[in-house]
Amino acid sequence: MRYVRYAILGGLGLVLISVSLANRGAVTLNLVPEALSGLLGGSHAITLPLFVVVLGGIATGVILGFVWEWLREHKHRREIGAKGREVRRLEREVGRLKDERHGDKDEVLAILDSTG
């Protein structure tokens, strides 16, 4: 299974390198519309290779998606934490009750006593 994952990642890497080499042409990326650029003064444009713009957009989308999901799942993580604390509290209580009931008995006798 590990080799399949490496093969897929290697293939994806080759595709990304191939696309990057094929799209090395420079493009001008306007950060502000031209109408607003006159109001703000100065030029708000950068020239980048096309593959940087495309791969940067993909990376930005993936990062925003991860952050969105992390924020959306916060309530589930909080609930799991609360349930875990409750389980630990109940385990301590069960242990305390067993000690109270079978404090000085042997373990085997305590098990036999609890089953019958």
TrEMBL record:
Sequence intervals crossing the membrane: 46-68
Coiled coil: 80-107
The organism of origin for this protein: Pukyongiella litopenaei
Protein name: LapA family protein
Any one annotated GO CC term: plasma membrane
Every Lipopolysaccharide assembly protein A domain range: 26-94
Highest taxon, organism lineage: Bacteria
A Pfam cross-reference name: LapA_dom
Protein keywords: Cell membrane, Coiled coil, Membrane, Transmembrane, Transmembrane helix
